[in-house]
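Kindly inspect this today.
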Amino acid sequence: MKAFPLYEGTYSVDQSKKFIPFDPALHSHSDRPGSLFINVQPFLVDTGKDLLLLDAGLGFTNPQGELILHRNIRDLGYQPGDVNKVLMSHLHFDHSGEWCRTATAGTNPAFRRLNIMCSGKNLNMPC
């Protein structure tokens, strides 16, 4: 079994609940008072039988318009279409943004051929 972190970035989140990219080389914590600073990092797990994604991340894209999560998976030598299961720890936006965004917007999901698993109590939470 192999596990890989899929770092999506560091973000500040204020009372507006918007995730704003934060780069400590360019930005200062003091410029964003009242914000939480969050590292978003889903994981990819290769069990030898399944390719699992632990949480679906924010669903943000890089400057080329590609999902950051997809780019990270490709950089590891896998294809996003190889993922066949997604395990959701819970449905907060930084863990499920991609899955919720595509589900509510009616767009194509980031991962097409998979089983999504989440505890029952989380299924009633709004995305």
